[in-house]
Amino acid sequence: MPGATVRISERSRQLLRELAHNTDTTMQSVIEHALLEYKKRLFWDQAERDFSAIRDDPKAWNEEIAERKAWDASLMDGLEAD
């Protein structure tokens, strides 16, 4: 498997070893999992900033609400609500 060398601090290396040991996995797996979780966090942080910007703009927020109502109307696909 191809790899790469990345320099990390001694503190990070020790933490990585500890996490790998505690989760009974490899240091590489810990790094891969951490990177995927970080990527997800960045995505949701950006989504929150984007929605905050929309909420702060009354015109954009009203358009968002109108679009949600249009989608809500299509959810039932002609079925009767209980």
Overview of the structural elements:
The model has no long low-confidence stretch (mean pLDDT about 90). The protein has one domain (about 10-75). The protein is about 75% helix and about 0% strand. Helix 1 crosses helix 2. With about 80 residues, the chain is an all-alpha fold. The chain contains 3 helices and no strands.
Overall pLDDT confidence: 91
**Any idea how many domains?**
1
Gap from first CA to last CA: 56 Å
Strand portion, in percent? under 5%
**Oligomer classification:** single chain
Write the H/E string, N to C.
HHH
Radius of gyration: 22 Å
Poorly predicted segments: none
Helix content: over 70%
Apparent shape: elongated
Q: Quick one: how many beta strands?
A: 0
Number of helices: 3
Structural class: mainly alpha
Topology, please?
Elements: H1 10-22, H2 27-55, H3 58-75
List keywords for this structure.
82 residues, mainly alpha, 3 helices, 73% helix, elongated
What's this, in brief?
The protein is mainly alpha-helical. The chain has helices spanning 10-22, 27-55, 58-75.
